[in-house]
C-alpha cells in the first residue's frame, strides 16, 4: 500500500513538473487567453483573442474617453485608464484589438531561457526578441507593451520595426517606454503611437518576457484581446465583452447631450433641469426628438437604438 502511495505521489510530481514546464511559454496558449477572456461569447482569433468587429472599432473612435471611462467604472472596472503620453500624431484617434508584451530589466539566466523557449515556439531567433510580438500582429491589432517606463536604452521600436508593425496591423502602438528615430516613425503614413519619450539610444539591458499575458500600463491592467481607445486625452483599455454595450451606451449619451444642448440654446429648459435626473416630460420630449432624428445621422441602426432604449426603460 505504501509502495502504491509513493508511486502515485511520484506520478503526481511528474505531472506537475510537466504542466509547469509547458505553462512557461513566451507566448500564452490560446486556452489561457480564452480563460482570461471567458466572458466574450463571439468569434476568436487562432491565438484565443476575442475578435471584436471592425464596425465596432470604427464606432468606438467617436466615443469620448470620459464616456468610456464612466461606463467602465459603473461596471466595476476602475483601473482601465492611463494618461500622460507623448503621441506621434496628437490629432489622431486609434482603436484596435490588443496584443500585449512585457519587458523587464535584463537578467542573463532568464533571458537565455526566453530565447531557448522562443526557438521552441518557432520564433525568429536571428534578430532581437522585441520583434516577436510584431510577427504575430494582424490587421486591426494594437501592440501594447509594458516597458516599465524606461526611455534611455528602453526604446522598443525605431522606424524599421515601426514599418513592420504597420505592415502587419495597419495600426499603431501604446508603449510604456521609449521610441527612437521619431523622424522616421513620423513618415509612416497611417501609423501612430502613444509613448513616454524619445531617445536616440537602442534597446539594451532589457528583455522580452511574455506575449499575450496580462500586463500593467501605468495605472491600468491590460489583457490580451482588450480593445484600446487612444486619443489626445489618453488611453483606455476596454474588456472585449463590454465593448458592444459601451459603444451604444456612449452613443446614446452623446445623443442626450445633443438634445440637451439644443434645448438649452432654445431656452426650453434651464441648465438645472437638463443637468439632473430628467422629469418624465423631458424624457418624453427626448424620445419624440429621437423619432425625428434622421436615420442617416444615427451612429447606430434604428433597431439597435430602439432595443437599447427598451432595455434601459426609456
TrEMBL record:
The keyword Magnesium applies. Mg(2+) binds at residue 181. It comes from Flagellimonas sediminis. Keywords: Magnesium, Metal-binding, Signal. Gene3D superfamilies: Ribonuclease E inhibitor RraA/RraA-like. SUPFAM superfamilies: RraA-like (SSF89562). Its cofactor is Mg(2+). Residues 1-23 form the signal peptide. It comes from the Bacteria. The keyword Signal applies. Pfam families: RraA-like. Substrate binds at residues 158-161, 180. This is RraA family protein. One of its GO terms (molecular function) is metal ion binding.
Amino acid at each position: 500500500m505504501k509502495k502504491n502511495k509513493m508511486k502515485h505521489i511520484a506520478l503526481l510530481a511528474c505531472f506537475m513538473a510537466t504542466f509547469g514546464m509547458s505553462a512557461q511559454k513566451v507566448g500564452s496558449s490560446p486556452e489561457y487567453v480564452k480563460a482570461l477572456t471567458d466572458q466574450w461569447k463571439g468569434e476568436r482569433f487562432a491565438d484565443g483573442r476575442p475578435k471584436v468587429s471592425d464596425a465596432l472599432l470604427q464606432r468606438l473612435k467617436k466615443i469620448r474617453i470620459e464616456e468610456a471611462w464612466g461606463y467602465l467604472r459603473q461596471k466595476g472596472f476602475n483601473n482601465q485608464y492611463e494618461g500622460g503620453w507623448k503621441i506621434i500624431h496628437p490629432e489622431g484617434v486609434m482603436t484596435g484589438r490588443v496584443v500585449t508584451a512585457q519587458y523587464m530589466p535584463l537578467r542573463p539566466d532568464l533571458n537565455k531561457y526566453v530565447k531557448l523557449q522562443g526557438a521552441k515556439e518557432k520564433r525568429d531567433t536571428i534578430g532581437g526578441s522585441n520583434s516577436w510580438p510584431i510577427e504575430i500582429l494582424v490587421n486591426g491589432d494594437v501592440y501594447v507593451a509594458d516597458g516599465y517606463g524606461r526611455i534611455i536604452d528602453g526604446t522598443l521600436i525605431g522606424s524599421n520595426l515601426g514599418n513592420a508593425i504597420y505592415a502587419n496591423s495597419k495600426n499603431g502602438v501604446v508603449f510604456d517606454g521609449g521610441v527612437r528615430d521619431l523622424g522616421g516613425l513620423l513618415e509612416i503614413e497611417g501609423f501612430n503611437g502613444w509613448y513616454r519619450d524619445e531617445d536616440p539610444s537602442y534597446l539594451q539591458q532589457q528583455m522580452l518576457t511574455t506575449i499575450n499575458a496580462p500586463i500593467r500600463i501605468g495605472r491600468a491592467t491590460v489583457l490580451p484581446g482588450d480593445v484600446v481607445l487612444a486619443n489626445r486625452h489618453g488611453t483606455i483599455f476596454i474588456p472585449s465583452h463590454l465593448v458592444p454595450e459601451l459603444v451604444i451606451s456612449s452613443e446614446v449619451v452623446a445623443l442626450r447631450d445633443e438634445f440637451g444642448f439644443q434645448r438649452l440654446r432654445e431656452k426650453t429648459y434651464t441648465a438645472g433641469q437638463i443637468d439632473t435626473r430628467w422629469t418624465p416630460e423631458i424624457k418624453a420630449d427626448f424620445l419624440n426628438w429621437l423619432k425625428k432624428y434622421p436615420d442617416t445621422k444615427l451612429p447606430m441602426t434604428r433597431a439597435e437604438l430602439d432595443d437599447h432604449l427598451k432595455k434601459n426603460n426609456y
